Amino acid sequence: MKTSPSPPGAQRTDRSTVKIGALVPLTRPGWVEAGRHLLAGLELAVREVNDAGGIVGRPLELVVRDTAADPQRAAAAVDELARLGVAALAGEYHSVVARAAAARADALGLPFLCSSAVLDALTEQPTEWVARLAPAQSHGWQIYADFLLSAGHSRIAVAAQPSVYWASGARILRDYLAPRGGTVIELDMRALAPTAVCEELVDHRATALLLLVGHPEPAVSIVKSVRRDQRLAEIMIGAPAGQPEFAEWATLLGDDSAAVPFLRYLPERLSPLGVRVETALRERLAEAPSFVAFEGYDTIAVLADVLRSHGTDRPRTAESWARVAVEGTRGQIQFSRTPGISVWQWAWAPIQVVDRDPAEPDRFRILHAG
After folding, report:
1. Phi, psi of 65 (to 5 degrees)
2. Residue 356 near residue 259, CB atoms below 8 Å
3. At CB < 8 A and 24+ separation, what contacts does 215-222 make?
4. What is the CA radius of gyration of the chain?
5. CA 19 to CA 88: how far, in whole Å?
6. Is the Cα torsion angle 86, 91, 97, 101 positive or negative in sign?
7. pTM
8. Around 68, how many Cα atoms within 13 Å sit in the side-chain half-sphere?
9. Residue 364 backbone dihedrals phi, psi, to 5 degrees
10. Which of 53, 137, 159, 245 has the fewest CB atoms within 10 Å, counting from its CB?
11. Which of 25, 34, 30, 85 has its CA nearest to residue 293?
12. Omega into 216 within 30° of 0, i.e. cis?
């Protein structure tokens, strides 16, 4: 494989630790709650690696940078972390941000294991430097589309904001549903207030509304408006991107937070490793861990295994993606080349469509599995 020269300063690092750079959204407009869970998983795994002797006797050190959902900030952080001599990059939740980080990591020759971002085209061209744990958007959102059809929904409105990620999601749904008798009606949230969404839903006779918008706003305001409109009492509200996964959703919406199906990347039952990690994450977070926390833990588990087996040389790490076989919290993790995906991909993490139980909003119901 082609190797990129180390950036200036890459060798001036503390040889007593093995550094991993962590990209995490920790401030607004980033999805802070997702960032907190992702970081908890990363940190827990680093602690366990070090308790078990580190990387061939050297402690693992996490060097955290807040991306705040800003692609330019993320790219600058990748440059900085490369200069600091990190062995690899981990993390990121937002797809558009991860795409910027992946492009920079590819240009610098810095291995990047992306934890949570799902955008299919994480890099413009195929790369050896980047691998991903989260399922690609096309895979997960097609499973969500299957759920919609099985639930009897064929006229589906999407309230969408401009973004590569939301546009990609709408296209996946439209391309998958159209041959199967489904219609996708796009509502441009640049032009519509949350209350105006209700009129559009009535006019288009939609039976489902999907939130392809930011959290908490305008997602929360749209849900409140639709729930209060008696004409829309039977409409299903969905959020494939996972907004209802986090406690803030229930806090902001109360009873309205329930019965909003979303994608979650967990198995029906956790393995013994998953159960142990769940207990430790719950203690660290003081709440139930989301799937994003498990993604963080699994990211470090994979990188630690690679670094132990192949050393901290960046090209050797990138060359090892094809040989990874690690027991993660949600199954055996291995990477492959998947058609249409430009990075090394775990195909696939388990996928569920779940919602919050109207009778008990803190409890999740599994509605569909893929």
Report:
1. -130, 130
2. yes
3. 215/31, 215/243, 215/248, 215/249, 216/248, 216/249, 216/252, 218/159, 218/161, 218/189, 218/194, 219/243, 220/249, 220/252, 220/253, 221/194, 222/159, 222/194, 222/197
4. 21
5. 8
6. positive
7. 0.94
8. 8
9. -100, 140
10. 53
11. 34
12. yes
Residue 58 has φ and ψ, to the nearest 5°, of -105, 135
Q: Which two tokens stand for residue 5?
A: 């020269």
CA-closest candidate to residue 39, choices 60, 68, 62, 61: 62
- Alpha-carbon dihedral sign for residues 151, 157, 163, 167: positive
- Tens digit of pLDDT at every position of the chain (370 positions): 544 443 333 333 445 999 999 999 999 999 999 999 999 999 999 999 999 999 999 999 999 999 999 999 999 999 999 999 999 999 999 999 999 999 999 999 999 999 999 999 999 999 999 999 999 999 999 999 999 999 999 999 999 999 999 999 999 999 999 999 999 999 999 999 999 999 999 999 999 999 999 999 999 999 999 999 999 999 999 999 999 999 999 999 999 999 999 999 999 999 999 999 999 999 999 999 999 999 999 999 999 999 999 999 999 999 999 999 999 999 999 999 999 999 999 999 999 999 999 999 999 999 999 9
CB contact at 8 A, 1 and 318: yes
Query: Residue 362 contacts by C-beta under 8 Å, 6 or more apart in sequence?
Result: 250, 288, 356
Q: Identify whether 194 is preceded by a cis peptide bond (ω within 30 of 0).
A: no
Six-digit token string for 176? 């998958």
